[in-house]
Amino acid sequence: MRRLPTCGSRITNHLSRVLYMIPILRLVPVLLVGAMLAPSLVQAQQPAPRDTLRLDAAVQRALDDNRQARIARRETDIAENDVSLGNAGFLPTLSGQANYSQTRSNSEQVFLSGETQSTDGATSTQSGAGADLRWTVFDGLRPFATYDRLGAERDRQAAATDEQVETLVADVIEGYYDVARQQQQLEVLQEAVAISRERLRIAELRRELGSASDLEVRQVRVDLNADSTEALRQAAALTNAKNQLNRLLARPEDASTRYAVASAIEVDTSLQYASTQQTALQESPALTQAREALRVAQAEQRELRADFFPTVDLTAGLNYSQLNAESGFVQENTSTEVTYGVSLTLDLFDGLNRWRRTQNADIRTTNARLAVEDVRARLVTELTNAYERYRNRLRLVDLGRQTLKAVRANVDVALEQFEQGTITSVELREVQEQFVQAESRLLTVQFEAKQAEVELLRLSGQLLDRY
User: Fold this and answer.
1) Burial status of residue 412 (CB atoms within 10 A of its CB: 0-12, 13-18, 19 or more)
2) Does pTM surpass 0.90?
């Protein structure tokens, strides 16, 4: 994309050739000055060495370090942990208990025989421990429906995480190529500044030699100041774009922006609507979430239908107790008990709440089915619009390249005419501005074409596979 350096060299060469039309004796001081300034000009145009950030490295860093991506992955881990036999209700429950108590009593007893017995401060202790096991062996097949629901919720959360991660990757790719666009735009404007600076130098030399006026020099200086202003604005825009990319990559707030990115915006021109739509209907995270939400609603229906069936529980228990007393008829008592049995429970009437919950579950299932259809229709619409924008931007890229080629030809013609003296420096400036504008428009439509490509891949669920 860096075509301006070549064009700038041609402009400089042609402008220098204009000076050769001046008598040699009058040109000697000019050549001496140019010889002294040439090394400093070359050194000033050399860019400072910078590290290059690759796109794959940027995407990987975002996936590893971005806080939102890390949160989303942990939400998926939570949903995965919830899918278990115990959480679904397949396994029995076992509970244990222990107790200890102490009693101090004062008593006075009178027997039928007339004898009396009194006790002061008698202490009795009682301790015990036990364990109870309960296992629901039938409750309308609720555990199977619960397990299906937990699995559907896990898959829905996984699809939501994929969608969030793909959105992050799309933002990183767009941010990366936005930096590339701003970087190339800065190079274009810097070349424009270099050309204007060279024009000013030649105009001043020509004025000293008497072949240019003060008005021409002032006009060239105005052009140079305008180009320098645009370059400074573009440098600030490039820094802002890099800061946005640093935020997506979870870099520290004081992270450096002294790095470069790819020197060209490469756009995949091979995407086809039919294959992209087919993949989207199968892999789209948004559509997958809607389908899994329907599975959740259907599983909830089966869970609530289990309320109409009886519950059969198997129970078993083991209890141990010990009593030590200083008064009463029993001084010490130790017992061990084992209990087991089966129980059946059936709710005969609960205020018709079971019917109400079942009807609501049916409504939620119908809504979930409608949501799947709505998401599918919206996905097709968004995919169609994105593909049309993609094709449109590709055509604009081709048109922009043709325009740039024509403008470059105009530059060559204008340089020849300027050399021959048939056009002025102002007219040459107009051609130079057209070249810069054409280059800028091409950069913009290339970036928009890349955005459209990324959006197509995101909607169809292919973005993570591509990058």
Assistant:
1) middle
2) no
Q: What is the mean pLDDT of residues 269-289?
A: 95
Helix runs in 83-141, H state only? 85-88
Q: Which residues contact 271 (CB under 8 A, 6 or more apart)?
A: 387, 390, 453, 456, 457
* Cα dist from 213 to 223, 322, 447, whole Å: 16, 119, 43
Q: What pLDDT sits at residue 255? A: 80
Q: In the predicted model, is pLDDT for residue 391 greater than 70?
A: yes
Helix (H) or strand (E) holding 264: none
What is the distance between the alpha carbons of residues 149 and 374, in angstroms, rounded to a whole number?
22
Mean of the pLDDT values across residues 121-144? 90
1.20.1600.10, 3.40.50.2000, 3.40.50.880, 3.30.450.150: which CATH number matches 4-83+139-310+346-466?
1.20.1600.10
Distance between CA 185 and CA 260 in Å, rounded? 13
Tracing tokens 């898959």 back to the chain, one arrives at 155
Alpha-carbon span 135 to 342, nearest angstrom: 10
Cα-flanking dihedrals φ and ψ of residue 108, to 5°?
-140, 120
> Residue 455: exposed, middle, or buried by beta-carbon count in 10 A (0-12, 13-18, 19+)?
buried
Q: What is the mean pLDDT of the chain?
A: 85
Supply angle C-alpha 333, 336, 342, rounded to 5.
140
pLDDT greater than 70 at residue 41: no
pLDDT at 205 over 90: no
User: Given a cut of 70, is residue 40 above it in pLDDT?
Assistant: no
Q: How many helices (H) and strands (E) does the chain have?
A: 12, 6
Q: Indicate the domain borders of the chain.
A: 4-83+139-310+346-466, 92-138+313-345
More confident residue, 328 or 396: 396
Separation between Cα atoms, residue 246 and residue 175, nearest integer Å: 9
Q: In terms of DSSP bridges, do strands 259-260 and 51-52 run parallel, antiparallel, or are they unpaired?
A: parallel
pLDDT(77) > 80? yes
- 249 vs 145: CA distance, rounded Å: 41
> Rounded to the nearest 10 degrees, how much is the dihedral formed by the CA atoms of 6, 12, 408, 264?
30
Which CATH architecture describes the domain 92-138+313-345?
Single Sheet (2.20)
Residue 38: pLDDT over 70: no
Phi-psi region of 251 (alpha: psi -120 to 50; beta: other; left: phi over 0): beta
Q: pLDDT digits over 92-105, tens only? A: 999 999 999 988 87
Whole-number Å distance between alpha carbons of 167 and 370: 25
Residue 406 has pLDDT above 70, yes or no: yes
